[in-house]
Amino acid sequence: MQIAAEVAIERTINIMWNRHAEPLSLEELAEAAIFSKFYYSRIFRDVTGTSPGRFLSAIRLFMAKRHLLETAASVTDISYRVGYNSLGTFTSRFTRSVGISPAKYRFLARCGLPPLSLPHGAADQKASTVTGRLHIPESAGRVRVYVGAFNSPIVEGLPQSCDILDDSGPFHLTVPDGLWFVRAAAVATDAEPGPRIRMPRLIGSGWPVKVRGGKAYTSDVPLRAVTPFDLPILLALPELDGPGTAALPELETDEQEAPLVAAK
C-alpha cells in the first residue's frame, strides 16, 4: 500500500513540474492520484513533509530562478511563465523564499553570488544549541555542506542559524525557543561552468526539534541522494545558482518591480 501511495504521489509531483504554470487545483491533483482530496493531502504530507500547495509553490519559485538565470525574459514575463498573475505577489514570495528580490537575484547570480556567511545564531543567553555530526561519503567528491535551522520544512529564505562544513565533522547551531527544522545540502565545489541552476549532490534532514530554555539538543542529519519527493532548494547558494564562466544573454531593461497588487 505504501509503495502504491508513493507512486501516486510521484505521479502528481511530475504533473506539478510539467504543468506548474497552470492553475492546478487540489481536486485535480487528487483525481490524478485516484484519491479523495482529503486522503491525498494527508498522504502527500506523510511522503513529502509538506502540503501539495507548498510543494507546487516551491516548484514555481525554483523554475523562476531557472528562468532568471538562464533566459533574458523580463521579471514580469517570468512571473506569468511560472503561474502567477500578479507581479507583486510573485516578487513578494520570491523575495521571502530566496532571500533577495528577482532582479537582485538575477544580477548577483550573473556576477557570482557572494558566499553565504551567517553567525551561528543569536547570542542570547537563553538561546538553545542544536548539534550533530555529518558524514560526507568519499563518493560525493568535493562538496561544501550547508546546515541550517529553518522555521518550515522548506529550505527557503535565510536560516535562523547556519553552519558550513567542507569535510565530515560536527555542526553547531544556536536558535531561540521554537520548532526548528534542521536541513543540510551538500553542493559541489567543482561543478562545470554554465549559466544554469545546479542540484545538490546530497541532502539531509533531521527530526524537527522543539527547543526552549537555553538547553542543548542533538539532531543527527544523515546525508542521502535527492529523490522526487524532496522539495527544491530555494535559498540562493553560490555553488548552486550561478553562471560559472559562461556568458549570459543580454538582459531586457524592464526590471522595475511593480507595487503589490491583489494576490492570485
Description:
It is a single chain. 32% of the residues lie in helices and 20% in strands. Strands 2, 3, 5, 7, 8 and 10 form a six-stranded antiparallel beta sheet that branches. Strands 4-1-9 form a three-stranded mixed beta sheet, with no helix packed on it. Strands 6-11 form a two-stranded antiparallel ribbon. α1 crosses α2, α2 crosses α3 and α4 (52-70) packs across α7 (102-111). 36% of the residues are buried. It has helices at 2-18, 26-33, 37-48, 52-70, 75-81, 87-98, 102-111, and strands spanning 128-134, 143-150, 161-165, 169-175, 178-188, 196-197, 202-205, 209-211, 216-218, 223-224, 241-242. The protein is an alpha+beta fold and 264 residues long.
Name the features.
alpha+beta; three-stranded mixed sheet; disordered C terminus; six-stranded antiparallel sheet; 32% helix; 264 residues
Task: Give a brief outline of the structure.
The chain has 264 residues and is α+β, with helices and mostly antiparallel strands.
Instruction: Kindly state the percentage of residues in helix.
Output: 25-40%
Q: Uncertain regions: pLDDT < 50 for 5+ in a row?
A: 245-264
Helix count equals 7
Q: Summarize the biggest pleated sheet.
A: 6 strands, antiparallel
Distance between the termini: 36 Å
